[in-house]
Design goal:
The chain contains four helices and 32 strands. The strands form eight sheets. Strands 1, 2, 3, 4, 5, 6, 15, 16, 17, 18, 19 and 20 form a twelve-stranded mixed sheet that branches. A four-stranded antiparallel sheet has the order 7-8-11-14, with no helix packed on it. Strand 12 and strand 13 form a beta hairpin.
């Protein structure tokens, strides 16, 4: 049984919440891979990873209880075995330079990487290896070392190690977040009576990711044991991004994530009203006077569920003053959370090319007919065209991307149910920009270069 212990300091008391997994079908214990802990009242999220993890939630002092803390913890890469690309999470409790080496089974160094002045917290690395084989990854810092074994099935197109960032894609300082396999401290606002939510993830015997029944309860002032129940049939159809099953924007909105090929996407449309620096995005209202091709604006369609459809943004709002980019990655954070960015036209092409390379996403065995695989199972106007998102919507969304037909704003709201438009960070000519377009009766995902920058369209963010 794997335990994940969250200790909460409330006033002068300590409140322990001990998480364990149980198979609801046969009552056997389940080894938990991760638990997503959400404070719904305060709007924050933390993710706890195997092995057993102890966190102390505290406010005010910024003082760490450092007893029993191992200063260097390297977690097993995921996925493992992997094809081409895998991710490694590293926890450090002391600042210092980190050196990483990858050797093959003969001891030959195949990759090396150094990161200077790494601060305490969780950090994630992206590892790319083109050749099949058994590899050993070793991390060294401040005289300590930790190693894991990795198994590559080959098929990668590149080789190297890249620093992704903090594993929850937030820039927590050492005084804000410290996690380790033994004990850590997180400084988050809380109070007894806060509504908490817990979601667990584990792997079944077939190495498929399964999820637990959601548990919601109030934060109390006494120790609690929380059992997360799993079923072998509750298999995750879509693979969350390794280390980042969710991401939270500056307003506290929580988005699920999706790994497609080598890209990590948000599974929902952006619905934020502030940039990550805290500055507000101006609301354009609902009338013609609110449109602008130069000033940032966001729009909320009052006739749809904003949590599902997200908000609509003009191109200046989506870009937040950044220059046009067609790089991969774009380097344009724009309105996206810290650690995420507005995808370029090149990155949108990478997505559609990947989906077009996977036969399970084709409609009528046509590799260009991928709209249904990327479109949500609802929101589309019903049509009879066989490979359009509006036809037999229950068969949509094989990829998990879940494109919603949020329509547009151009002085008024239109085309919700018919169309979905997504901005790219790439300009085209004067007053135009690239976008991706879904149509309820169209089988493809269409690249357009004539997007009027004044229009309000949907935004999806991509992890750095």
């Amino acid at each position: 049984m794997t335990m994940l212990l969250l200790s909460v300091a409330v006033s002068a008391q300590m409140v322990s919440m001990t998480f364990s997994g149980r198979n609801a079908d046969n009552n056997q214990y389940v080894k938990i891979y991760s638990v997503v802990v959400q404070n719904l009242t305060r709007g924050w999220t933390e993710t706890l990873f195997w092995p057993d993890t102890v966190l102390t939630l505290a406010e005010g002092t910024g003082i760490w209880d450092r007893s029993d803390v191992s200063s260097l913890t390297l977690y097993q890469n995921t996925p493992n075995p992997f094809r081409g690309t895998t991710f490694v999470n590293l926890n450090v409790t002391e600042p210092g330079d980190v050196a990483l080496t990858i050797t093959d089974i003969t001891g030959r160094v195949v990759e090396s990487f150094q990161k200077t002045a790494l601060q305490p917290g969780n950090h994630q690395m992206r590892v790319m290896l083109p050749a099949a084989g058994i590899y050993f990854l070793t991390v060294r810092q401040n005289g300590q070392a930790s190693s894991i074994k990795m198994i590559s099935n080959g098929g990668g197109s590149g080789s190297g190690v890249e620093y992704v960032g903090a594993s929850d894609c937030q820039n927590h300082s050492s005084a804000q977040l410290l996690k380790s396999a033994s004990k850590g401290v997180i400084h988050r606002p809380f109070a007894p009576g806060d509504q908490m939510e817990y979601n667990g993830y584990a792997f079944n015997a077939n190495n498929q990711l399964i999820y637990s029944t959601t548990v919601q309860q109030m934060l109390g002032s006494a120790s609690q044991a929380i059992t997360l129940e799993f079923s072998e049939t509750d298999v995750m159809v879509f693979q969350p991004c390794p280390g980042n099953p969710t991401v939270t924007d500056v307003d506290g909105n929580i988005y699920n994530t999706l790994q497609l090929g080598q890209q990590c996407w948000m599974r929902e449309n952006l619905r934020v009203t502030h940039y990550s620096d805290g500055s507000p995005i101006p609301n354009g209202g609902t009338g013609i006077d609110g449109i602008s091709a130069q000033e940032p604006r966001y729009y909320v369609n009052p006739s749809v569920d904003e949590a599902l459809y997200g908000y609509l943004y003009n191109w200046p709002a989506a870009m937040h003053g950044a220059a046009s980019s067609n790089e991969n990655p774009s380097g344009v954070q724009g309105a996206c959370p810290t650690g995420w960015h507005l995808p370029s036209d090149t990155e949108w092409s990478q997505l559609t090319e990947y989906v077009s390379s996977q036969s399970e996403y084709f409609c009528n065995e046509n590799s260009s007919y991928i709209a249904k695989a990327l479109a949500a199972k609802s929101s589309w106007r019903t049509i009879t065209d066989e490979c359009g998102p509006g036809n037999n919507q229950s068969t949509n969304n094989a990829s998990g991307f879940g494109a919603i037909s949020a329509g547009y704003f151009n002085g008024g709201f239109g085309a919700a149910g018919y169309n979905a438009f997504f901005w790219a960070s790439t300009a085209h000519g004067s007053g135009k920009a690239y976008n991706r377009f879904f149509y309820h009766g169209g089988p493809g995902v269409y690249k357009l270069d004539d997007g009027n920058r004044a229009y309000g369209w949907s935004v999806r963010c991509l992890r750095d």
